[in-house]
Amino acid sequence: MTDRKRNAHMAGLIYVLLVFTGIISLAYVPGQIMVHGDSAQTLANLRASENLFRLGLIAGLTCQVLYILLPLSLYRLLKSVDEPKARLMAILAIVSVPISFVAYSHKFKVLSLLGSSDGLAGFDAAQTNAQILLALASYSNTISLASLFWGLWLLPFGYLVFKSGFLPKILGLFLMAGCFGYVISLIGSTLWPTAYAASGISSFISIPSAIGEIGIAFWLLFMGVKKSPVN
User: Fold this and answer.
1) If we measure between CA atoms, which residue out of 63, 56, 147 comes closest to residue 99?
2) CB-CB contact of 204 with 181 (8 Å)
3) DSSP tag of 227
4) Residue 105: strand, helix, or coil
5) Lower Cβ count inside 10 Å, N or C end of the chain?
């Protein structure tokens, strides 16, 4: 029981740090810089907030390192519940990491175009701006692919939480629902980008995963696991 509690608290600490760095890199920084449908304003924000962009890049890379450590830690905690599903959970989570690193390589290209005279060689201002926007689009497309696996791993993870008996079942349900939120979001934004964005679904489709992931992160960190079954 002591080892299980220790594993739970460690997984919770990693998860909370992952959530924090993920919010910075995927929500806060893009929200300050990216302006949907306005490339000129996006470029202006980017040049005015280059240090913030760099902070977001470091936070994103840190988040991906944590994304390797987290499923391994959760595997140790949950393999006694159902080892094949715990293994699947870890694999689906870790598969997203190399895809995400490819995505962040496009952000490094943005930095080379913004701040390095070598990166600007051979390009006039308009060409440089076009290259920056292309790199940002490549980042967005690649991170969308990674998001598929950010969703898929939540299904076995949520199942293991639900079946464990030592973690809240309700959080397991939110995690499993969160899996479908990610998948629906990717399909909708890919097949019907304009209609999906206008539908308003995107504004609440991520709520189950947010509740499930933030909830289980803080539960593991502060509560750990219980000897008696948790409903």
Assistant:
1) 147
2) no
3) S
4) helix
5) C
Which of 25, 120, 123 is closest to 66 using CA atoms? 25
The 8 Å CB, 24+ separation contacts for 125-130 are 129/39, 129/43
The dihedral built from the CA positions of residue 159, 147, 31 and 111, taken in this order, carries a sign that is positive
The residue behind tokens 């890919």 is: 190
User: How many alpha carbons fall within 13 Å on the CB side of residue 50?
Assistant: 10
Answer whether residue 50 shows pLDDT above 60: yes
| φ, ψ (nearest 5 deg) of residue 220 | -65, -40
Instruction: Give the separation between CA 216 and CA 196, rounded to whole angstroms.
Output: 29
DSSP readout, 4-17? HHHHHHHHHHHHHH
Nearest of 23, 109, 98 to residue 68 by alpha carbon: 98
Query: pLDDT tens digits, residue range 67-86?
Result: 999 999 999 999 999 999 99
Helix ranges restricted to H, the chain: 2-23, 29-33, 39-48, 50-78, 83-115, 117-120, 125-152, 154-164, 169-191, 193-199, 207-218
Q: How far apart are the C-alpha atoms of 2 and 222, rounded to whole Å?
A: 15
pTM for the whole structure = 0.92
- Residues 188-200: pLDDT tens digits? 999 998 888 888 8
